[in-house]
Amino acid sequence: MKFPRRTLLHLAAGAAALPIMSCVARAQTYSSRPVRLIVTVAAGGSPDIIARLIGQWLSERLGQPFFVDDRPGASGNIGTEIVVRASPDGYTLILAISANAINASLYDNLNFNFIRDIAPVASISTIPLVMEVNPSVPAHTIPEFVAYAKANPGKINMASGGIGSPLHVTGELFKMMAGVDMIHVPYRSEALALPDLISGQVQMMFGVMPASLGYIRAGKLRALAVTSAKRQEILPDAPALNEFYPGYEANGCYGIGAPKATPTEIIEKLNKEINGALSDPPIKGRLADLGCKRVCGFAHRLRKVHRRRSREVGQAD
After folding, report:
1. Distance separating alpha carbons of residues 113 and 115, to the nearest angstrom
2. What pTM does this model have?
3. How do strand 92-96 and strand 204-208 relate by DSSP bridges?
4. How distant, in Å, are the alpha carbons of 130, 213, 271, 288, 295 from that of 240?
5. Please, what sign has the CA dihedral across residues 235, 135, 129, 293?
6. Please, which residues bridge with residue 125 across strands?
7. Other C-beta atoms within 10 Å of 58: how many?
8. Which among 27, 103, 164, 315 is least surrounded, fewest beta carbons within 10 Å?
């Protein structure tokens, strides 16, 4: 069958427009089925708590379940790779955390590059850690704890959420700056370490506030200091560690990411809804009560990087 030249030109133009129309159609119909939000730590940890709060908001706003899928293991690399390999359609997302940045310097053989392979969607918050001890530890201040640790070298067990985790790295920084010798006891997650800290099987930990605040308020754990540059309103009696060790600062960071090549329209839609959650008084108040502050701009910065790379690729083509 032969077509007139004009008909062929119309068909060719229509075919060229199909990819664009397909992206627009996907964005307009998003979300039409449940969305999986991957958390790279075990249930009950601080990232899991934040993910469920944001997921509930998105479920209500977009009319589809945003269910949290906890995939711990390999310092978060297992869950991250699931998202990297997922279809870039907005139905598999990741709660990005500090470990995603740390792991790039700890692992030489990762099967992905986080900055290259994950498209930033939205920032959620920065969050300090809290240096906490079991109440049986005979120390109520940092000087008292350091004196006790130096008098008992190698006898204090420091729990963490795993080797190379933000909890571990923060603790090692303290050990180095304070000049104390503590035994690192890695757990598979923060949530699994907390029961042993409360029972006294381990004596101290640098915990993330959302998972620890309830136990501190109940008197099951004692907060000695926070890792932010300044004191936190949520724990006004806990000094900042840099009051004793100038320059000490360690903060976590939470955000939402998606597989690269996820349509821009879908990312912008999610960004708008997540920013709406962060401006909503009840959500804003709940995050503040968990010790989270909306001052993290990593997603905004990474989105600029992705846009620039997309323009460069387009020019090269």
Report:
1. 6
2. 0.79
3. unpaired
4. 9, 16, 33, 18, 18
5. negative
6. 254
7. 22
8. 315
Q: Which amino acid is at 282?
A: P
Q: pLDDT confidence of 257, banded at 50, 70, 90?
A: very high
Convert the chain into a string of H (helix), E (strand) and C (coil): CCCCHHHHHHHHHHHHHHHHHHHHHHHHHCCCCCEEEEECCCCCCHHHHHHHHHHHHHHHHHCCCEEEEECCCHHHHHHHHHHHHCCCCCCEEEEECHHHHHHHHHCCCCCCCHHHHEEEEEEEEEEEEEEEECCCCCCCCHHHHHHHHHHCCCCCEEEECCCCCHHHHHHHHHHHHHCCCCEEEECCCHHHHHHHHHHCCCCEEEEEHHHHHHHHHCCCCEEEEECCCCCCCCCCCCCEHHHCCCCCCCEEEEEEEEECCCCHHHHHHHHHHHHHHHHCHHHHHHHHHCCCECCCCHHHHHHHHHHHHHHHHHHHC
CA distances (Å), origin 19, targets 11, 173, 287, 292: 14, 50, 40, 40
CA 161 to chain centre: 14
CA distance 258 to 255: 10
Burial group, residue 94, by CB count within 10 angstroms (0-12, 13-18, 19+): buried
Contact assessment for residue 62 and residue 271, using Cβ atoms and an 8 Å cutoff: no
What pLDDT score was predicted for residue 311? 54
Residue 305 pLDDT exceeds 70: no
The reported pLDDT for the residue numbered 307 is: 53
pLDDT in tens, 22-33: 445 455 689 899
| Radius of gyration of the chain measured on its C-alpha atoms | 23
